[in-house]
Amino acid sequence: MEPHGTQNVDTRKSSAKRLADKVAVVTGGARGIGAATAKLFAENGAHVIIADVLDEVGATVAESIGGRYIHCDVSKEGDVESAIELALAWKGHLDIMFNNAGISGSEERSITSLDMENLSHLFSINLYGTIHGIKHAARAMIKGKKGGSIICTSSAASIMGGLALHGYTMSKAAMDGLVRSAACELGVHLIRVNCISPHGVPSEMLINACKRFENVDITPEQLNEMIGKRASLLRGRGATIEDVAQAALFLASDESGFITAHNLRVDGGHTSADSKMS
Ligand code: NAD
């Protein structure tokens, strides 16, 4: 096997099985963006381990794609290490780490009433969970000497203020810094580190956040329509979990072999536009 990301890319051949024989760990893979990505990775030939805290649903998704499931609370370093050990025990190598697990966090709207315990809990998942993933994936990939691709799910909130609450915004902005910093160190091992910044994907996390923070009961279809009207330059077109999964597939595959330290926005242009335009 060639080092990850260094093959000459034959787009005709690779379009069918772009991740043939690669091994991937997907955190937060039981539902939403993570589940859609795990499925797409598997369809493209990858062996996928789903690492989540939703055991029943996670195991069902893993079974449906011929993958494996492991209970993994990303805030616990030992759990993340075990997920990577499972990949090594199962297939002998790790090529792709998708640090995707995340929560929307605490309720406080004002910086003046931030609850430090809530903030710590949020950081322990969104930020420390990602640190655990990068650290242990990098160890395995360095040892494997074949390079690899580490992808993290950041957010448009990492780029733009006011899109989300303070804690969430901070956790994702810190993640972006971590991605650039880790990419600088790991490039010498041909390990690429990138993140994706979605916006307005009608997952359970966002639907629940609308309920909790805005007191709005909204269906995924209504949310998608609303995003298509107000938060996308692509009129009428809101985001889907598959849009993010396709971006993850690109960053996981050899087609993106010269891309690292990048934040790929999957936001319909929202974070690049004046608010009157979007
Ligand atoms: P989701 O709630 O459907 O999925 C999140 C997954 O993470 C779930 O399977 C959940 O069980 C898992 N998870 C939560 N805490 C965990 C923990 N401690 N350990 C392991 N797994 C854990 O929501 P989603 O929208 O698919 O979220 C996926 C990622 O996308 C998150 O990092 C989120 O911040 C990010 N994101 C989402 C949006 C959006 O619009 N939905 C926008 C920007 C970024």
From TrEMBL:
It holds the Pfam family adh_short_C2. The keyword Phosphoprotein does not apply. GO terms for biological process: proteolysis. Keywords: Oxidoreductase. The keyword DNA repair does not apply. Residues 91-214 form the Caspase family p20 domain. GO terms for molecular function: cysteine-type endopeptidase activity; oxidoreductase activity. InterPro entries: NAD(P)-bd_dom_sf, Pept_C14_p20, Sc_DH/Rdtase_CS, SDR_fam. PANTHER family: 3-OXOACYL-(ACYL-CARRIER-PROTEIN) REDUCTASE (AFU_ORTHOLOGUE AFUA_6G11210), SHORT-CHAIN DEHYDROGENASE REDUCTASE ATA1. Belongs to the short-chain dehydrogenases/reductases (SDR) family. This is Caspase family p20 domain-containing protein. It comes from Canavalia gladiata. The lineage of its organism: Eukaryota, Viridiplantae, Streptophyta, Embryophyta, Tracheophyta.
